[in-house]
Write a structure and sequence with these properties.
The chain is about 40% helix and about 20% strand. The protein is of the alpha/beta class. It has one domain: Rossmann fold, CATH 3.40.50. The strands form 2 sheets. The protein has a 6-stranded parallel β-sheet with strand order 3-2-1-6-7-8, with helices on both faces. Helix 6 runs parallel beside helix 7.
């Protein structure tokens, strides 16, 4: 599946800060003498993009023995900053109606969901590797935001994170330390262990909305 990911425009799902990248009045107000690099920095100032590895989050939640509240999670990652996009990547079983309902809820509550069919490996486990999709989207979104919030632990994203850092994009990494590549932690500007914020993003008995 190869969805189209235009960086501008309204997501249609709300909870997303959309910035008119082509608005010439913004450049005029900033001065017509802006260089190309200055213009790019002006457009992306203070904005963030969020990319969540669904499998990584799922296994972290299992280890922490919590159920994730995805509204709380999005609010915590966003932290009152202007949000360009919040992407959620996951493998899917098309025969699983409960999962399809969950992903529909995600799309209606601030997330853009990208999926790939699960494949069965020789050992019987099922997996959908979306590291390439995440890396490509990270590099693209880095042109339009100041900070990239990444929820993943895989070292397969090290090169993309390093490239973005050299381009001046700040990287905030959220993951469970025990499941996270050490080099990925070192490359990030800020690392937050999910164990330290589990009580801020967990679903409690007081939360009446069942998102699954």
């Amino acid at each position: 599946m190869q969805p189209t990911r235009p960086p501008e425009g309204n997501s249609g799902y709300g909870n997303v800060y959309d910035f008119p990248l082509s608005d010439s009045s913004l450049l005029t107000s900033a001065g017509n003498s802006l260089s190309q690099n200055q213009s790019s920095a002006f457009h992306r100032k203070h904005r963030i993009s969020i990319l969540i590895d669904g499998a990584s989050l799922f296994y972290a939640a299992l280890q922490l023995q919590i159920e994730i509240d995805y509204l709380k999670l999005l609010a915590h990652l966003k932290n009152d900053r202007p949000l360009l996009r919040a992407y959620f990547y996951t493998g899917i079983d098309r025969a699983n109606d409960r999962q399809q309902g969950f992903l529909l809820w995600m799309r209606r509550n601030g997330y853009r969901v990208f999926t790939k069919d699960l494949i069965t490996l020789p050992d019987g486990s099922r997996k959908a590797n979306m590291d390439v999709e995440m890396a490509v989207d990270m590099l693209m979104l880095g042109n339009y935001c100041d900070t990239l919030v990444l929820l993943s632990g895989t070292g397969d994203l090290n090169y993309a994170v390093d490239t973005l850092s050299y381009r001046g994009v700040k990287i905030e990494l959220f993951s469970l330390r025990s499941n996270t590549n050490e080099q990925l932690i070192n490359l990030a500007d800020r690392f937050i262990d999910l164990n330290d914020i589990k009580n801020l993003i967990r679903k409690t008995s007081d939360d009446s909305l069942d998102v699954e």
